[in-house]
Amino acid sequence: MRKLQAQGIHHITLTGADRQTSIDFWEGLLGMPFVFEQPNLDNPDEGHLYFDPGDGRLITVFTNETRKPDPKRTPTDPGCVHHLAINLSRATFSQAVTRLEERGIGHSGVKDRGFMDSIYFKDPMGFLIELACYRFEPPFGCSHADVMIEAHRIRVARGDYNIAEEHLADAIQLLVERRQQTLSRD
Question: Are residues 55 and 124 in the same domain?
C-alpha cells in the first residue's frame, strides 16, 4: 500500500487567549515573529495569528477577545497533545532560566534527557512548552534524526536504558565513516 509521505510539519495550531496575550507570549517571550493574521475561517468570533518558530514553518494561534489566560494545565488524556518542544541554540538555552525568571515565569529548571537538555513551563492557557537543546551537532550532510536512529541502534545493541552522550559520539563517528572516505588505513 502506498504512503502519504510526510515532508515535515506544515503548521501547528493552538488555542490561545486574547490577541495581545498571544502576541506577547509567542513573539514577546519566545521571539517568534508575528507574520500573518486573518479571521479563523471556521469560526468568525476568533482570530488566527501566525508565528514563525525560526525554521520558516508556522505555529498558529486561534484567539478570542473573550478568552482570558488560564494557567491550569491543559488535559493530557490519551489523544491530547502533551506538549510542544521548541529548539534553542546552546547559547540561548544557557540563558533560558534567567530570562524566564526575569519575567516571573515558573519553570522546571534544566532536565537532563541524555541526548538533549529541556526546560518546561506553561503558556498563558496552561499548555506545556518545552525549550529543548540538543547536546550534539550532526555531521555535515546528516540530520539530527540520522544521529538519533544510529544512537538508538547502538544503545539497544549495548542493552543500555536510554541514549547518552557516548551513544551520540559513537553514532556521529559511524555516520562520518560511512559518508566520508579517507586515504588512511587506521
Answer: yes
